[in-house]
Specification:
Shape: elongated
Distance between the termini: 32 Å
Mean pLDDT: 78
GO molecular function, one term: D-glucose transmembrane transporter activity
Keywords: Membrane, Signal, Transmembrane, Transmembrane helix
Protein name: GTR9 protein
Structural class: mainly alpha
InterPro entries: GLUT, MFS_dom, MFS_sugar_transport-like, MFS_trans_sf
Order of helices and strands: HHHHHHHHH
Organism: Certhia brachydactyla (short-toed tree-creeper)
Low-confidence stretches: none
Number of helices: 9
Number of strands: 0
Length: 193
Amino acid sequence: MWNVLLSFSGLVALIQLLFLPFFPESPPYLLLQKEDKAGCLKAMKQLWGEGNYHTEFDDLMKEKAITKGTKIMNVLEVLRERSVYPQLCTMLLLLLSLQLCGLKIFETANLQESIIPYVSLGVSISELISIIFCSSIIDRFGRRMLLCGGYLLMALILVLLEMSLLLSDRFLWLRYCSVILIFLFIIAYGIGP
């Protein structure tokens, strides 16, 4: 039934796409990028109902003043910018290694076919947990601390994962520890990088 599950996410995306034109633009987008003050206030009223939004509007105006000299780049401009190549390469290698690492570990763990759907479900739940957890703590700790802590936690988990894979022939229960460590790696990746 994987095809039904896959088509369900496509159905949700299609519904979102159909209803998107009926929603107003984001007030920060209208003010900061389009410089449309009236549209920004109108969007605030549409999104939040009638009320006085001068405090929020003033905050956006302050943000606009701070970012006045900053140029907003599109994706192609970011890819052409040489100063971000190290970050892009790091993220690309991390994403590729994450995909390959997960495949190899599930293969190495010799999991029974009946368990594989539960492992896939566990991966999805791990991603969901990391998104919820990250969005609730990012303002408290800041991006820099989450990045550094996430990378350190991922390194520790990978060391433990390597040890569990090396010893999995002696101790069969370590195969399942490897799967749990993959879940923890996904959560650490989602919280940090």
